Amino acid sequence: MNDFATYLTGFLSVYLPSQKNASRNTITSYRDTFKLLIKYCHDIKSIPAERLTMNKLSNQLVIGYLEWLETERKCSISTRNQRLAAIHAFFRYAQYEEPEGLLHFQKVIAIPLKKAPKPVIPYLTPDAMQVLLAQPDRSTAQGRRDAVLMSVLYDSGCRVQELIDLNVSSFISGTSPIMILTGKGNKTRRVPLMKNTVSLLEAYIHENSLDKPWKIDYPLFVNRQLNHLTKEGVSYIIGKYVPYARKENKMVPEKVTPHMFRHSKAMHLLQAGVNLIYIRDFLGHSDIQTTEIYAKADTELKRIAIENAYADLVDNSLPDWNRDTSLIEWLSKLK
Asked: 195-215: per-residue pLDDT in tens?
């Protein structure tokens, strides 16, 4: 009996969606981890999928798999750690299903994550973001759709998957308009929208006849096949406006990803003096430590804080040493 196949099926089909309430993206990521693991076992270790058992999945085999991801597939340390986190979760699940294999499973669970340098958070300045958002040609239907899409992406601070999953019913207008977002772990949150974004969004909904009662479950943004957009589709929409925005403002990066809109919104809220607790809730972070990365990355806020905290100790009226002829003569003799 192939216990690996049994456990993997239960893990992906029952445990993650039903017991852990994992999102579709999380389950897909975990599935891809094991697809690659099976490929590694088949291609490198000559173990076909039908013969792959839990006993054969030793900690040394898993370490070899992780090294293969880095060296052969050129995966980043971050991706390696994500794959390992999925394997850890699977073996934690397995140890409760098969307690007699506890020692074997815990050797795999004990494999540590690999330390990686913390990346710089990429974001756009307010001016650069304003220029980028102004690029779509609003005289065309496609341009208006793109303008609304990018405005909602920035103003709500949503993840790209959250944007893709939006339905017409996700937008609630009125005196305090909000967008209902469904994030990681299928957790929902309500975020306020600014009046300019609301105006664009209401006009877009009316133009596309999405304000009919029977269309509340229609996708808010669709592709040419009238289906939900894909992540690649959103990236393409943003990417086609970047070169034009760079011509107006060189502060616009050469490459702008959908997630940079989220980073930019967080940084702009922080720079506007919004408390980190509120930013955490706005972004849907489960831990304030995740939100603190923005405070650590904002050098402008650090500069202002230092200026406000300390008096100037260096006298800016120091004498001009160029007028000291004896000093100049001494310096000129140095070889």
From this structure: 999 999 999 999 999 989 898
